[in-house]
Design a protein that fits this description.
Elements lengths: L11 H12 L1 H53 L2 H7 L6 H20 L5 E7 L21 E6 L7 H4 L11 E3 L4 H4 L1 E10 L7 E11 H4 L13 E5 L5 E5 L9 H7 E10 L2 E10 H52 L14 H40 L5 H14 L3 H19 L5 E3 H19 L3 E7 L6 E4 L4 H10 L6 E10 L2 E8 L6 H8 L9 H14 L4 E7 L3 E9 L1 E2 L2
Parallel strand pairs: 1-2, 11-13
Antiparallel strand pairs: 1-5, 3-4, 4-5, 6-7, 6-9, 8-9, 10-12, 12-17, 13-14, 14-16, 15-16
Helix pairs in contact: 1-9, 2-4, 2-9, 3-4, 9-10, 10-16, 11-12, 12-13
Length: 582
Amino acid sequence: MKIRRRHKYVPIGYKLMLTYMFFIIIPISLIGFVSHSMYNDSLREHINTNIKGTLLQIRDNIDYKMDEVTRISTQLYSDFDFYRNLRSYEEGWENYDRMSKKVLPKLDVAIQSTGVKIGMSLFLKNESIPEIYSNSLEGYLDNSSFYHLYHMKRIEGKSWYYDFPTEKYAETMKWWQIESDVENNRISLLRRLIDTYEPLKPKEIGFLRINVRIPDLFDSVNYTKIGKGSNLIIKNEFGRTMYQSGELPENYTNEAELNKDYLTIKETIMVANQAWQLIALVPIAILEKDAMKVRLFIILMCLICCVVFSFVGIFISRYFSIRINKFVYVLNAYREGDLHKRIKYRGKDEFSQIATALNDMGENIDMLIKEVYLTQLQKKEAELEILQSQINPHFLYNTLSSIIQLAKFGQNEKLQKMVLELAKFYRLTLNEGRTMIPVPTEIEQANAYLEIQKIKYGDRLEVMFDFDTEIWPYETIKLILQPFIENVLKHAWCGDHIHLRIVGRKEGDNILFRIIDDGIGIRQERIDQIFDSKGHTNTGYGVRNVDQRIKLQYGPEYGVSIFSRVGIGTSVQILIPAKKRK
Protein backbone atom coordinates (compact mmCIF):
# COMPACT_ATOMS: atom_id res chain seq x y z
CA MET A 1 0.00 0.00 0.00
CA LYS A 2 1.38 3.33 -1.09
CA ILE A 3 1.34 6.01 1.54
CA ARG A 4 0.82 9.57 0.32
CA ARG A 5 3.13 11.98 2.03
CA ARG A 6 1.70 15.29 3.12
CA HIS A 7 3.51 18.36 1.90
CA LYS A 8 4.89 20.52 4.61
CA TYR A 9 3.72 24.11 4.75
CA VAL A 10 3.90 27.03 7.07
CA PRO A 11 0.75 27.19 9.24
CA ILE A 12 -1.52 30.15 8.73
CA GLY A 13 -0.91 31.40 12.24
CA TYR A 14 2.80 31.88 11.53
CA LYS A 15 2.07 33.44 8.18
CA LEU A 16 -0.23 35.97 9.80
CA MET A 17 2.28 36.84 12.47
CA LEU A 18 5.28 37.07 10.14
CA THR A 19 3.39 39.16 7.65
CA TYR A 20 2.19 41.40 10.42
CA MET A 21 5.68 41.88 11.90
CA PHE A 22 7.28 42.78 8.57
CA PHE A 23 4.55 44.91 7.07
CA ILE A 24 2.60 46.40 9.96
CA ILE A 25 3.84 49.92 9.38
CA ILE A 26 3.29 49.95 5.61
CA PRO A 27 -0.31 48.62 5.60
CA ILE A 28 -1.48 50.87 8.42
CA SER A 29 0.13 53.90 6.82
CA LEU A 30 -1.38 52.95 3.47
CA ILE A 31 -4.79 52.41 5.06
CA GLY A 32 -4.57 55.83 6.66
CA PHE A 33 -3.62 57.47 3.38
CA VAL A 34 -6.28 55.63 1.40
CA SER A 35 -8.93 56.32 4.05
CA HIS A 36 -8.12 60.00 3.95
CA SER A 37 -8.21 60.04 0.15
CA MET A 38 -11.45 58.08 0.10
CA TYR A 39 -13.01 60.46 2.58
CA ASN A 40 -12.00 63.44 0.49
CA ASP A 41 -13.34 61.77 -2.63
CA SER A 42 -16.49 60.73 -0.79
CA LEU A 43 -16.97 64.23 0.57
CA ARG A 44 -16.48 65.76 -2.85
CA GLU A 45 -18.76 63.18 -4.41
CA HIS A 46 -21.41 63.77 -1.77
CA ILE A 47 -21.25 67.52 -2.28
CA ASN A 48 -21.14 67.05 -6.04
CA THR A 49 -24.21 64.77 -5.91
CA ASN A 50 -26.17 67.16 -3.70
CA ILE A 51 -25.28 70.17 -5.81
CA LYS A 52 -26.02 68.30 -9.03
CA GLY A 53 -29.44 67.44 -7.63
CA THR A 54 -29.99 71.12 -6.85
CA LEU A 55 -28.76 72.10 -10.32
CA LEU A 56 -31.16 69.61 -11.89
CA GLN A 57 -34.06 71.15 -9.95
CA ILE A 58 -32.96 74.63 -11.05
CA ARG A 59 -32.57 73.41 -14.64
CA ASP A 60 -36.03 71.83 -14.60
CA ASN A 61 -37.51 75.09 -13.31
CA ILE A 62 -35.78 77.04 -16.10
CA ASP A 63 -36.85 74.46 -18.69
CA TYR A 64 -40.43 74.71 -17.48
CA LYS A 65 -40.57 78.48 -17.86
CA MET A 66 -38.85 78.45 -21.24
CA ASP A 67 -41.13 75.65 -22.42
CA GLU A 68 -44.09 77.82 -21.41
CA VAL A 69 -42.84 80.61 -23.68
CA THR A 70 -42.03 78.10 -26.45
CA ARG A 71 -45.54 76.67 -26.11
CA ILE A 72 -47.02 80.11 -26.75
CA SER A 73 -44.94 80.50 -29.90
CA THR A 74 -45.93 77.02 -31.06
CA GLN A 75 -49.58 77.84 -30.40
CA LEU A 76 -49.36 80.66 -32.97
CA TYR A 77 -46.88 78.85 -35.24
CA SER A 78 -49.19 75.86 -35.77
CA ASP A 79 -52.48 77.82 -36.00
CA PHE A 80 -53.53 77.53 -39.66
CA ASP A 81 -56.61 79.70 -39.11
CA PHE A 82 -54.33 82.40 -37.72
CA TYR A 83 -52.17 82.21 -40.87
CA ARG A 84 -55.21 82.35 -43.10
CA ASN A 85 -56.25 85.66 -41.57
CA LEU A 86 -52.71 87.07 -41.70
CA ARG A 87 -52.37 86.47 -45.45
CA SER A 88 -55.73 88.09 -46.27
CA TYR A 89 -55.41 91.48 -48.01
CA GLU A 90 -58.97 92.68 -47.52
CA GLU A 91 -59.23 96.31 -46.44
CA GLY A 92 -61.71 98.59 -44.81
CA TRP A 93 -64.40 97.15 -42.59
CA GLU A 94 -63.47 93.54 -43.56
CA ASN A 95 -59.91 94.15 -42.38
CA TYR A 96 -61.08 95.69 -39.09
CA ASP A 97 -63.57 92.89 -38.50
CA ARG A 98 -60.95 90.22 -39.23
CA MET A 99 -58.38 91.79 -36.93
CA SER A 100 -60.76 92.46 -34.03
CA LYS A 101 -62.46 89.03 -34.14
CA LYS A 102 -59.81 86.64 -35.46
CA VAL A 103 -56.28 87.93 -35.00
CA LEU A 104 -56.12 90.13 -31.91
CA PRO A 105 -58.13 87.74 -29.65
CA LYS A 106 -55.58 85.01 -30.41
CA LEU A 107 -52.76 87.32 -29.37
CA ASP A 108 -54.63 88.24 -26.18
CA VAL A 109 -55.13 84.56 -25.34
CA ALA A 110 -51.47 83.80 -26.08
CA ILE A 111 -49.97 86.41 -23.74
CA GLN A 112 -52.43 85.56 -20.96
CA SER A 113 -52.01 81.77 -21.13
CA THR A 114 -48.86 81.65 -19.01
CA GLY A 115 -47.72 82.91 -15.64
CA VAL A 116 -44.56 84.39 -17.20
CA LYS A 117 -44.83 88.08 -18.09
CA ILE A 118 -43.98 88.43 -21.78
CA GLY A 119 -43.76 91.09 -24.44
CA MET A 120 -44.77 89.88 -27.90
CA SER A 121 -43.80 91.62 -31.15
CA LEU A 122 -45.31 90.32 -34.39
CA PHE A 123 -43.69 91.50 -37.67
CA LEU A 124 -45.91 90.92 -40.73
CA LYS A 125 -45.28 91.11 -44.48
CA ASN A 126 -48.95 91.89 -45.08
CA GLU A 127 -48.92 95.71 -44.92
CA SER A 128 -52.71 95.87 -45.30
CA ILE A 129 -52.76 95.00 -41.59
CA PRO A 130 -52.16 98.21 -39.62
CA GLU A 131 -49.35 98.43 -37.09
CA ILE A 132 -50.42 98.31 -33.47
CA TYR A 133 -47.98 99.64 -30.91
CA SER A 134 -47.70 102.06 -28.05
CA ASN A 135 -44.93 103.61 -25.97
CA SER A 136 -41.84 101.38 -26.31
CA LEU A 137 -41.49 101.34 -22.53
CA GLU A 138 -44.96 99.91 -21.99
CA GLY A 139 -44.69 96.53 -20.28
CA TYR A 140 -41.04 97.06 -19.40
CA LEU A 141 -41.63 99.46 -16.53
CA ASP A 142 -44.61 97.76 -14.94
CA ASN A 143 -43.51 94.21 -15.90
CA SER A 144 -46.82 93.35 -17.57
CA SER A 145 -47.60 91.27 -20.67
CA PHE A 146 -48.17 93.14 -23.93
CA TYR A 147 -48.01 92.73 -27.70
CA HIS A 148 -47.21 94.91 -30.75
CA LEU A 149 -47.84 94.45 -34.48
CA TYR A 150 -45.26 95.83 -36.94
CA HIS A 151 -44.47 95.53 -40.62
CA MET A 152 -41.54 93.33 -41.67
CA LYS A 153 -39.69 96.24 -43.24
CA ARG A 154 -38.77 97.36 -39.69
CA ILE A 155 -36.45 94.34 -39.21
CA GLU A 156 -35.40 93.28 -42.72
CA GLY A 157 -32.23 95.33 -42.44
CA LYS A 158 -31.34 94.13 -38.94
CA SER A 159 -28.23 91.95 -38.60
CA TRP A 160 -29.92 89.53 -36.20
CA TYR A 161 -32.70 88.92 -38.73
CA TYR A 162 -30.14 88.39 -41.49
CA ASP A 163 -28.16 85.90 -39.33
CA PHE A 164 -31.21 83.93 -38.19
CA PRO A 165 -30.82 80.18 -39.06
CA THR A 166 -32.39 78.57 -42.10
CA GLU A 167 -35.92 77.42 -41.38
CA LYS A 168 -36.68 73.81 -40.46
CA TYR A 169 -40.40 73.43 -40.06
CA ALA A 170 -41.54 73.38 -36.42
CA GLU A 171 -37.92 73.27 -35.21
CA THR A 172 -36.11 76.52 -35.97
CA MET A 173 -36.20 78.98 -33.07
CA LYS A 174 -33.57 80.82 -31.07
CA TRP A 175 -33.20 82.49 -27.69
CA TRP A 176 -31.19 85.65 -28.34
CA GLN A 177 -30.46 89.01 -26.75
CA ILE A 178 -31.01 91.54 -29.52
CA GLU A 179 -31.34 95.31 -29.78
CA SER A 180 -32.09 96.69 -26.28
CA ASP A 181 -32.44 93.29 -24.55
CA VAL A 182 -29.06 93.53 -22.81
CA GLU A 183 -29.81 97.06 -21.63
CA ASN A 184 -33.23 96.07 -20.30
CA ASN A 185 -31.98 92.76 -18.83
CA ARG A 186 -34.28 90.74 -21.08
CA ILE A 187 -34.01 87.99 -23.66
CA SER A 188 -36.08 87.16 -26.74
CA LEU A 189 -37.38 83.97 -28.31
CA LEU A 190 -37.20 84.45 -32.10
CA ARG A 191 -39.20 82.41 -34.57
CA ARG A 192 -40.41 82.71 -38.15
CA LEU A 193 -44.08 82.40 -39.05
CA ILE A 194 -44.31 79.96 -41.96
CA ASP A 195 -47.45 79.64 -44.10
CA THR A 196 -47.89 76.04 -45.28
CA TYR A 197 -50.93 76.75 -47.45
CA GLU A 198 -48.76 75.36 -50.27
CA PRO A 199 -46.86 72.56 -48.46
CA LEU A 200 -44.26 72.18 -51.20
CA LYS A 201 -43.51 75.92 -51.15
CA PRO A 202 -43.68 77.09 -47.51
CA LYS A 203 -43.51 80.86 -47.32
CA GLU A 204 -42.44 83.23 -44.58
CA ILE A 205 -45.31 85.61 -43.80
CA GLY A 206 -43.99 87.10 -40.60
CA PHE A 207 -41.61 86.95 -37.68
CA LEU A 208 -42.37 86.40 -34.00
CA ARG A 209 -40.38 87.85 -31.10
CA ILE A 210 -41.38 86.98 -27.53
CA ASN A 211 -39.50 89.08 -24.97
CA VAL A 212 -39.03 87.94 -21.33
CA ARG A 213 -37.25 89.44 -18.32
CA ILE A 214 -34.14 87.40 -17.46
CA PRO A 215 -34.84 87.58 -13.67
CA ASP A 216 -38.29 86.04 -14.35
CA LEU A 217 -36.72 83.09 -16.22
CA PHE A 218 -33.90 82.56 -13.75
CA ASP A 219 -35.57 83.40 -10.44
CA SER A 220 -34.73 79.88 -9.20
CA VAL A 221 -31.00 80.52 -9.70
CA ASN A 222 -30.06 81.44 -6.12
CA TYR A 223 -26.59 80.74 -4.71
CA THR A 224 -27.96 80.29 -1.17
CA LYS A 225 -29.38 76.92 -2.29
CA ILE A 226 -25.84 75.46 -2.48
CA GLY A 227 -24.13 77.25 0.41
CA LYS A 228 -22.66 80.48 1.67
CA GLY A 229 -19.88 81.93 -0.49
CA SER A 230 -20.96 79.91 -3.52
CA ASN A 231 -21.86 81.23 -6.96
CA LEU A 232 -24.35 80.19 -9.63
CA ILE A 233 -23.70 81.34 -13.20
CA ILE A 234 -25.61 80.83 -16.45
CA LYS A 235 -23.63 81.16 -19.69
CA ASN A 236 -24.98 81.02 -23.22
CA GLU A 237 -23.58 78.92 -26.06
CA PHE A 238 -20.90 81.57 -26.73
CA GLY A 239 -19.65 81.48 -23.13
CA ARG A 240 -21.05 84.90 -22.21
CA THR A 241 -22.47 85.25 -18.70
CA MET A 242 -26.20 85.91 -18.89
CA TYR A 243 -27.06 85.68 -15.19
CA GLN A 244 -25.10 85.34 -11.96
CA SER A 245 -26.14 84.77 -8.36
CA GLY A 246 -23.42 85.53 -5.84
CA GLU A 247 -20.22 87.55 -6.20
CA LEU A 248 -16.69 86.40 -7.00
CA PRO A 249 -13.57 88.12 -5.63
CA GLU A 250 -12.01 90.53 -8.13
CA ASN A 251 -8.47 89.09 -7.88
CA TYR A 252 -9.05 86.17 -10.29
CA THR A 253 -7.57 86.82 -13.73
CA ASN A 254 -8.35 83.50 -15.43
CA GLU A 255 -10.32 80.29 -15.02
CA ALA A 256 -7.25 78.25 -13.94
CA GLU A 257 -6.81 80.41 -10.83
CA LEU A 258 -10.52 80.16 -10.14
CA ASN A 259 -10.41 76.35 -10.20
CA LYS A 260 -7.74 76.32 -7.49
CA ASP A 261 -10.09 77.84 -4.92
CA TYR A 262 -13.48 76.66 -6.18
CA LEU A 263 -15.05 73.31 -6.99
CA THR A 264 -16.74 73.72 -10.38
CA ILE A 265 -19.90 71.73 -11.18
CA LYS A 266 -21.66 72.18 -14.52
CA GLU A 267 -25.03 71.22 -15.90
CA THR A 268 -26.13 71.67 -19.52
CA ILE A 269 -29.42 73.39 -20.33
CA MET A 270 -30.68 72.67 -23.85
CA VAL A 271 -32.62 75.71 -25.05
CA ALA A 272 -33.99 75.50 -28.62
CA ASN A 273 -30.92 73.52 -29.77
CA GLN A 274 -28.65 75.92 -27.88
CA ALA A 275 -26.40 74.44 -25.19
CA TRP A 276 -26.31 76.79 -22.21
CA GLN A 277 -24.25 76.06 -19.11
CA LEU A 278 -25.48 76.23 -15.52
CA ILE A 279 -22.28 76.49 -13.43
CA ALA A 280 -21.95 76.16 -9.65
CA LEU A 281 -18.77 77.37 -7.90
CA VAL A 282 -18.29 75.98 -4.37
CA PRO A 283 -15.38 77.29 -2.22
CA ILE A 284 -12.82 74.53 -1.59
CA ALA A 285 -11.99 76.11 1.77
CA ILE A 286 -15.29 74.75 3.10
CA LEU A 287 -14.20 71.22 2.17
CA GLU A 288 -10.73 71.63 3.65
CA LYS A 289 -12.05 72.40 7.14
CA ASP A 290 -13.75 69.02 7.45
CA ALA A 291 -10.86 67.23 5.71
CA MET A 292 -8.33 68.52 8.27
CA LYS A 293 -10.34 67.10 11.18
CA VAL A 294 -10.57 63.70 9.52
CA ARG A 295 -6.84 63.75 8.65
CA LEU A 296 -5.84 64.23 12.31
CA PHE A 297 -8.27 61.54 13.42
CA ILE A 298 -6.88 59.01 10.91
CA ILE A 299 -3.25 59.66 11.96
CA LEU A 300 -4.13 59.17 15.63
CA MET A 301 -5.98 55.94 14.90
CA CYS A 302 -3.06 54.56 12.87
CA LEU A 303 -0.66 55.16 15.75
CA ILE A 304 -2.95 53.47 18.25
CA CYS A 305 -3.42 50.50 15.92
CA CYS A 306 0.35 50.02 15.56
CA VAL A 307 0.82 49.86 19.35
CA VAL A 308 -2.16 47.64 20.10
CA PHE A 309 -1.58 45.22 17.23
CA SER A 310 2.00 44.70 18.29
CA PHE A 311 0.85 43.17 21.62
CA VAL A 312 -2.11 41.13 20.49
CA GLY A 313 -0.82 39.94 17.11
CA ILE A 314 0.27 36.51 18.25
CA PHE A 315 -2.95 35.72 20.09
CA ILE A 316 -5.13 36.93 17.24
CA SER A 317 -3.23 34.96 14.58
CA ARG A 318 -3.57 31.74 16.58
CA TYR A 319 -7.21 32.37 17.32
CA PHE A 320 -7.98 32.85 13.65
CA SER A 321 -5.88 30.03 12.20
CA ILE A 322 -7.73 27.23 14.04
CA ARG A 323 -11.14 28.45 13.10
CA ILE A 324 -10.31 29.52 9.57
CA ASN A 325 -9.26 25.99 8.66
CA LYS A 326 -12.76 24.76 9.53
CA PHE A 327 -14.35 27.33 7.33
CA VAL A 328 -11.93 26.61 4.48
CA TYR A 329 -12.92 22.95 4.55
CA VAL A 330 -16.64 23.72 4.26
CA LEU A 331 -16.12 26.43 1.65
CA ASN A 332 -14.11 24.04 -0.52
CA ALA A 333 -16.99 21.57 -0.29
CA TYR A 334 -19.45 24.28 -1.37
CA ARG A 335 -17.18 25.25 -4.23
CA GLU A 336 -17.23 21.65 -5.45
CA GLY A 337 -21.02 21.59 -5.32
CA ASP A 338 -21.51 19.68 -2.07
CA LEU A 339 -24.01 21.84 -0.19
CA HIS A 340 -24.63 19.29 2.57
CA LYS A 341 -21.44 19.94 4.56
CA ARG A 342 -21.94 21.68 7.91
CA ILE A 343 -19.73 23.27 10.55
CA LYS A 344 -20.10 22.13 14.14
CA TYR A 345 -19.00 25.07 16.21
CA ARG A 346 -19.69 26.03 19.80
CA GLY A 347 -19.46 29.54 21.04
CA LYS A 348 -21.16 32.92 20.90
CA ASP A 349 -18.60 34.98 19.02
CA GLU A 350 -18.37 36.13 15.40
CA PHE A 351 -17.15 32.74 14.22
CA SER A 352 -20.30 31.20 15.58
CA GLN A 353 -22.31 33.63 13.49
CA ILE A 354 -20.20 32.85 10.41
CA ALA A 355 -20.66 29.12 10.98
CA THR A 356 -24.41 29.57 11.32
CA ALA A 357 -24.45 31.74 8.19
CA LEU A 358 -22.53 29.14 6.17
CA ASN A 359 -24.85 26.36 7.33
CA ASP A 360 -27.88 28.47 6.44
CA MET A 361 -26.36 29.29 3.08
CA GLY A 362 -26.16 25.62 2.17
CA GLU A 363 -29.81 25.12 3.13
CA ASN A 364 -31.11 28.25 1.38
CA ILE A 365 -29.12 28.17 -1.87
CA ASP A 366 -31.81 26.23 -3.81
CA MET A 367 -34.53 28.43 -2.46
CA LEU A 368 -32.59 31.55 -3.49
CA ILE A 369 -32.20 30.23 -7.01
CA LYS A 370 -35.96 29.81 -7.24
CA GLU A 371 -36.54 33.25 -5.76
CA VAL A 372 -34.19 34.84 -8.31
CA TYR A 373 -36.16 33.18 -11.09
CA LEU A 374 -39.45 34.43 -9.68
CA THR A 375 -37.96 37.88 -9.13
CA GLN A 376 -37.03 38.10 -12.80
CA LEU A 377 -40.61 37.33 -13.75
CA GLN A 378 -41.91 39.93 -11.32
CA LYS A 379 -39.39 42.45 -12.65
CA LYS A 380 -40.67 41.93 -16.16
CA GLU A 381 -44.26 42.48 -15.00
CA ALA A 382 -43.22 45.57 -13.05
CA GLU A 383 -41.44 47.05 -16.07
CA LEU A 384 -44.55 46.47 -18.14
CA GLU A 385 -46.71 48.20 -15.54
CA ILE A 386 -44.27 51.14 -15.38
CA LEU A 387 -44.33 51.61 -19.15
CA GLN A 388 -48.13 51.33 -19.08
CA SER A 389 -48.37 53.99 -16.37
CA GLN A 390 -46.17 56.36 -18.38
CA ILE A 391 -48.79 56.76 -21.11
CA ASN A 392 -49.50 60.46 -21.00
CA PRO A 393 -52.96 61.35 -22.33
CA HIS A 394 -51.92 64.97 -22.69
CA PHE A 395 -54.72 65.48 -25.20
CA LEU A 396 -56.94 65.81 -22.09
CA TYR A 397 -55.77 69.41 -21.74
CA ASN A 398 -56.74 70.23 -25.33
CA THR A 399 -60.07 68.43 -24.95
CA LEU A 400 -60.94 70.35 -21.79
CA SER A 401 -59.97 73.59 -23.57
CA SER A 402 -62.31 72.66 -26.42
CA ILE A 403 -65.10 71.89 -23.91
CA ILE A 404 -64.60 75.34 -22.36
CA GLN A 405 -64.84 76.97 -25.78
CA LEU A 406 -68.01 75.02 -26.65
CA ALA A 407 -69.56 76.01 -23.34
CA LYS A 408 -68.52 79.62 -23.89
CA PHE A 409 -70.24 79.79 -27.28
CA GLY A 410 -73.30 77.84 -26.14
CA GLN A 411 -72.82 74.82 -28.42
CA ASN A 412 -74.49 72.49 -25.95
CA GLU A 413 -75.07 69.59 -28.32
CA LYS A 414 -71.39 69.37 -29.29
CA LEU A 415 -70.42 69.96 -25.67
CA GLN A 416 -72.55 67.04 -24.49
CA LYS A 417 -71.20 64.76 -27.19
CA MET A 418 -67.58 65.66 -26.44
CA VAL A 419 -68.03 65.07 -22.69
CA LEU A 420 -69.67 61.69 -23.33
CA GLU A 421 -66.90 60.61 -25.69
CA LEU A 422 -64.23 61.78 -23.23
CA ALA A 423 -65.86 59.77 -20.44
CA LYS A 424 -66.12 56.78 -22.73
CA PHE A 425 -62.43 57.07 -23.68
CA TYR A 426 -61.24 57.10 -20.07
CA ARG A 427 -63.61 54.31 -19.06
CA LEU A 428 -62.02 52.16 -21.74
CA THR A 429 -58.51 53.36 -20.81
CA LEU A 430 -58.85 52.45 -17.14
CA ASN A 431 -60.29 49.00 -17.98
CA GLU A 432 -60.34 47.99 -14.30
CA GLY A 433 -56.52 48.14 -14.21
CA ARG A 434 -56.07 45.37 -16.81
CA THR A 435 -53.20 45.61 -19.30
CA MET A 436 -54.64 43.18 -21.88
CA ILE A 437 -57.96 44.04 -23.55
CA PRO A 438 -60.03 42.63 -26.45
CA VAL A 439 -59.18 43.98 -29.90
CA PRO A 440 -62.72 45.43 -30.36
CA THR A 441 -62.28 47.39 -27.11
CA GLU A 442 -58.99 48.87 -28.38
CA ILE A 443 -60.70 49.87 -31.64
CA GLU A 444 -63.66 51.31 -29.73
CA GLN A 445 -61.27 53.34 -27.60
CA ALA A 446 -59.48 54.71 -30.68
CA ASN A 447 -62.87 55.58 -32.18
CA ALA A 448 -63.88 57.43 -28.98
CA TYR A 449 -60.71 59.50 -29.25
CA LEU A 450 -61.42 60.24 -32.93
CA GLU A 451 -65.02 61.25 -32.15
CA ILE A 452 -63.63 63.89 -29.79
CA GLN A 453 -61.25 65.13 -32.47
CA LYS A 454 -64.00 65.18 -35.13
CA ILE A 455 -65.95 67.58 -32.94
CA LYS A 456 -62.84 69.76 -32.75
CA TYR A 457 -61.72 69.58 -36.41
CA GLY A 458 -65.03 69.00 -38.16
CA ASP A 459 -64.83 68.29 -41.91
CA ARG A 460 -61.07 68.88 -41.90
CA LEU A 461 -60.59 65.35 -40.53
CA GLU A 462 -61.62 62.31 -42.57
CA VAL A 463 -61.22 58.82 -41.06
CA MET A 464 -61.78 55.36 -42.54
CA PHE A 465 -61.72 52.14 -40.50
CA ASP A 466 -60.80 48.96 -42.37
CA PHE A 467 -60.78 45.97 -39.99
CA ASP A 468 -60.97 42.25 -40.70
CA THR A 469 -63.56 40.58 -38.46
CA GLU A 470 -61.17 37.64 -37.99
CA ILE A 471 -59.25 39.66 -35.39
CA TRP A 472 -62.33 40.16 -33.16
CA PRO A 473 -61.75 37.08 -30.88
CA TYR A 474 -58.18 38.13 -30.03
CA GLU A 475 -56.64 40.36 -27.37
CA THR A 476 -54.03 43.09 -27.38
CA ILE A 477 -52.15 45.45 -25.08
CA LYS A 478 -54.32 48.49 -24.46
CA LEU A 479 -53.59 51.93 -25.91
CA ILE A 480 -51.44 51.00 -28.91
CA LEU A 481 -53.53 52.78 -31.59
CA GLN A 482 -54.44 56.09 -29.92
CA PRO A 483 -50.86 57.46 -29.49
CA PHE A 484 -50.22 57.16 -33.24
CA ILE A 485 -53.57 58.71 -34.14
CA GLU A 486 -52.71 61.56 -31.78
CA ASN A 487 -49.28 61.96 -33.46
CA VAL A 488 -50.98 62.27 -36.86
CA LEU A 489 -53.30 65.02 -35.62
CA LYS A 490 -50.47 66.80 -33.85
CA HIS A 491 -47.64 66.63 -36.39
CA ALA A 492 -48.84 65.43 -39.81
CA TRP A 493 -51.15 68.25 -40.99
CA CYS A 494 -50.47 69.28 -44.58
CA GLY A 495 -52.88 72.09 -45.31
CA ASP A 496 -56.37 72.35 -43.84
CA HIS A 497 -57.43 68.71 -44.34
CA ILE A 498 -56.03 65.34 -43.42
CA HIS A 499 -57.13 61.83 -44.31
CA LEU A 500 -56.57 58.96 -41.90
CA ARG A 501 -56.99 55.24 -42.56
CA ILE A 502 -56.83 52.64 -39.76
CA VAL A 503 -56.42 49.00 -40.87
CA GLY A 504 -56.45 45.73 -38.92
CA ARG A 505 -55.62 42.33 -40.48
CA LYS A 506 -54.75 38.83 -39.35
CA GLU A 507 -51.62 37.64 -41.14
CA GLY A 508 -50.73 34.07 -40.30
CA ASP A 509 -50.24 33.79 -36.52
CA ASN A 510 -49.96 37.57 -36.11
CA ILE A 511 -52.20 40.63 -36.12
CA LEU A 512 -51.03 43.68 -38.08
CA PHE A 513 -52.44 47.16 -37.47
CA ARG A 514 -51.70 50.07 -39.82
CA ILE A 515 -52.27 53.79 -39.28
CA ILE A 516 -51.94 55.55 -42.64
CA ASP A 517 -52.11 59.32 -43.26
CA ASP A 518 -51.51 61.68 -46.17
CA GLY A 519 -49.69 64.25 -44.05
CA ILE A 520 -46.33 65.95 -44.46
CA GLY A 521 -44.34 62.75 -43.84
CA ILE A 522 -41.27 62.11 -41.67
CA ARG A 523 -37.61 62.22 -42.67
CA GLN A 524 -35.68 58.96 -42.22
CA GLU A 525 -33.26 60.72 -39.84
CA ARG A 526 -36.23 61.64 -37.65
CA ILE A 527 -37.49 58.03 -37.67
CA ASP A 528 -34.03 56.81 -36.63
CA GLN A 529 -34.03 59.31 -33.73
CA ILE A 530 -37.45 58.09 -32.57
CA PHE A 531 -36.24 54.49 -32.12
CA ASP A 532 -32.80 55.52 -30.78
CA SER A 533 -33.54 56.97 -27.33
CA LYS A 534 -29.86 57.81 -26.64
CA GLY A 535 -29.50 61.58 -26.85
CA HIS A 536 -33.11 61.95 -28.09
CA THR A 537 -35.13 61.40 -24.92
CA ASN A 538 -37.66 64.07 -25.90
CA THR A 539 -38.15 62.73 -29.47
CA GLY A 540 -40.86 60.17 -30.23
CA TYR A 541 -41.50 59.25 -26.59
CA GLY A 542 -45.02 57.95 -27.31
CA VAL A 543 -43.82 55.77 -30.21
CA ARG A 544 -41.03 54.23 -28.11
CA ASN A 545 -43.46 53.66 -25.24
CA VAL A 546 -45.78 51.54 -27.42
CA ASP A 547 -42.84 49.72 -29.03
CA GLN A 548 -41.25 48.90 -25.65
CA ARG A 549 -44.52 47.70 -24.13
CA ILE A 550 -45.12 45.34 -27.08
CA LYS A 551 -41.56 43.96 -27.00
CA LEU A 552 -41.69 43.53 -23.23
CA GLN A 553 -45.00 41.64 -23.43
CA TYR A 554 -44.44 39.53 -26.57
CA GLY A 555 -40.71 39.57 -27.43
CA PRO A 556 -38.26 41.51 -29.63
CA GLU A 557 -39.68 40.17 -32.92
CA TYR A 558 -42.86 42.24 -32.40
CA GLY A 559 -43.33 45.99 -32.14
CA VAL A 560 -43.65 49.18 -34.21
CA SER A 561 -42.19 50.09 -37.61
CA ILE A 562 -42.61 53.38 -39.51
CA PHE A 563 -42.51 53.94 -43.27
CA SER A 564 -42.78 57.49 -44.59
CA ARG A 565 -42.07 59.78 -47.53
CA VAL A 566 -41.85 63.52 -47.06
CA GLY A 567 -44.76 65.30 -48.71
CA ILE A 568 -46.71 62.06 -49.34
CA GLY A 569 -47.58 60.60 -45.96
CA THR A 570 -46.72 58.05 -43.30
CA SER A 571 -47.66 54.43 -42.58
CA VAL A 572 -47.18 53.05 -39.06
CA GLN A 573 -47.27 49.25 -38.65
CA ILE A 574 -47.93 47.56 -35.30
CA LEU A 575 -47.28 43.80 -35.18
CA ILE A 576 -48.50 41.62 -32.29
CA PRO A 577 -49.10 37.86 -31.98
CA ALA A 578 -52.64 36.57 -32.42
CA LYS A 579 -53.64 35.38 -28.95
CA LYS A 580 -57.26 34.60 -28.22
CA ARG A 581 -59.03 36.13 -25.24
CA LYS A 582 -59.29 33.93 -22.17
